[in-house]
Design brief:
The protein is mainly alpha-helical. It has 20 helices and eight strands.
């Protein structure tokens, strides 16, 4: 058992116990502990407490404090400092540590002895960026951490305090682009829609971070050498990715770096000084009227029948098809209201459906006429659902009773089902391969070929910009092109006609 010496000291009108012992290396160690007793009238009580503390004090246990996680050490320091701090100061410290500092370091699982200035700089940077802490808050946390870590130094649990050279309001340390990108992604999770966040996550975690991680580029490296970003774009193009996909990556990178610029971590956005690929004009395959008629005949009785008809006739997006609810069908006035969507996304590795009581854009919210064929189909589906619910009884899923497109067990059809099942169906029936979304293009093309104006097509499809309608969906079927060619050829000799 280590011999522990001790004596009393007066400090600010209170008795302090000063303990002294030799460590395993033979060095003299001391520790100051408050008695919590005023000097006046409490000498005997203080002496008694000193003797008791000397007897119970174990230096070997105390030397293990440096191995504690930072979060546990901070809580311990707070408990041991309660008698040394004014009540108001203690209350503020307890509030700040419990609300901000301790929860942050609980996630890091750093030990006290492993705590470095870089770790503390990262903490302050995180609070500045993600939590948008004020200067006064940063200074308060810095003061509290300074006191806590100095206590560790005074008790020989740390040789030097790692916070000495840390400025909570200024960050000149280099930050890896990939680290900042992941921190920015975490921040965006609470600031954008889940579907947008899912899009960010896919691009950043699967493509952007893996590429840049191998080079260890800092934000400052990218600022000085925008070519590093350009090299990434070229690398992805060389891998066979489309220009439109790389443009999507560019948008993610630029948005992240713009935030770094806004908070003063870089002086300019290097993504503004690179050449992004030229956007590729989309070209799709479409079905003409004859091919659509063939499709409608073949699809009868197939689980995808409803989705195919709604996409080809009404030009609905798959999210709008799956999101259709019975309340959107007005049988009396023969109308369909497009106002709900369901989107499948992958968030943090987990697939999930996001149902929204709104459409992709304001213009996408539209009302369309209910034609007799679709009315009959919907009434038939309603009867089948009622029958399936009776037959399946307790096994029938009741979570989606308000949705139209459900399977025989009552579960809502997943958006991916349509895009995955459709090409399999086409192959099985030896039909021309097109994407499910191309049925929407086919609808627009057929409307245009039959003299419907672009403005009317825009409203039918729910486009916010008529240029979208003009550039993407005006796929004239070949028969229309032949008619146009023959009209022009009338002024030329007979043999030039098509």
């Amino acid at each position: 058992m280590t011999n522990v010496a001790g004596h009393l000291r007066e400090q600010n009108g209170m008795y302090q116990m000063i303990l002294s012992w030799k460590d395993t290396d033979g060095k003299r160690r001391t520790k100051s502990i408050s008695t919590g007793l005023p000097v006046k009238g409490n000498k005997k009580r203080a002496e008694s407490l000193l003797r008791k503390t000397q007897k119970e004090f174990n230096p070997e246990t105390m030397q293990q404090v440096s191995d504690l996680p930072v979060s546990e050490y901070l809580n311990r320091w707070l408990r041991e400092s309660v008698m040394n701090l004014p009540p108001e100061t203690y209350g503020r410290y307890a509030y700040d540590l419990g609300r901000v500092v301790v929860p942050y370091f609980e996630k890091k699982r750093l030990s006290l002895k492993a705590l470095s200035p870089r770790d503390l700089e990262t903490f302050f940077r995180y609070e500045r960026q993600q939590e948008e802490a004020s200067v006064q808050q940063l200074l308060d946390w810095h003061k509290e951490l300074t006191d806590a870590l100095q206590y560790a130094v005074d008790n020989n649990w740390l040789k030097v305090s790692p916070i000495k050279e840390v400025d909570p309001c200024l960050d000149n340390s280099p930050v890896l682009f990939t680290d900042f990108l992941m921190d920015w992604l975490k921040m965006m999770k609470s600031r954008v829609e889940i579907t947008t966040y899912a899009g960010y996550t896919g691009s950043i975690t699967k493509r952007i971070v893996p590429y840049f991680k191998q080079f260890n580029y800092t934000l400052q490296d990218l600022e000085q050498h925008p070519k590093y970003i350009q090299d990434f774009y070229q690398h992805e193009l060389d891998r066979g990715l489309s220009a439109n996909t790389v443009i999507h990556y560019h948008a993610n990178i630029r948005k992240c770096l713009q935030y770094a610029f806004q908070i003063g971590m870089i002086r300019s956005n290097p993504a503004d000084r690179v050449e992004r690929p030229r956007k590729e004009k989309f070209k799709s395959e479409v079905y003409n009227a004859e091919e659509l008629e063939q499709l409608f005949t073949a699809i009868q009785g197939d689980p995808a029948e409803f989705g195919v008809i709604m996409a080809a006739f009404y030009g609905l997006r798959r999210s709008e098809i799956v999101g259709l609810k019975w309340e959107a069908i007005d049988f009396e006035n023969k109308k369909i209201s497009i106002q709900h969507t369901v989107v499948g996304v992958k968030v943090d590795g987990v697939m999930m459906d996001v149902a929204r009581d709104r459409t992709k854009t304001k213009s996408s919210c539209r009302t369309l006429p209910l034609i007799p064929a679709c009315e009959q189909m919907l009434k038939k589906m309603k009867k089948e659902q009622e029958l399936n619910r009776k037959v399946c009884a307790k096994e029938y899923c009741t979570d989606y009773l308000d949705y139209i497109y459900v399977n025989p067990m009552g579960k809502r059809v997943h958006p991916d089902y349509l895009t995955q099942h459709f090409p399999i169906f086409l192959t099985a029936h030896d039909m021309k391969r097109i994407r499910f979304h191309d049925l929407r293009h086919s609808c627009a093309s057929l409307l245009y070929a039959n003299g419907v104006s672009l403005k009317e097509i825009q409203e039918w499809l729910g486009h916010s910009d008529i240029s979208t309608t003009s550039n993407i969906y005006t796929h004239l079927d070949f028969s229309s092109k032949v008619s146009s060619a023959n009209a022009i050829a009338r002024i030329f000799p007979e043999e030039t006609k098509v």
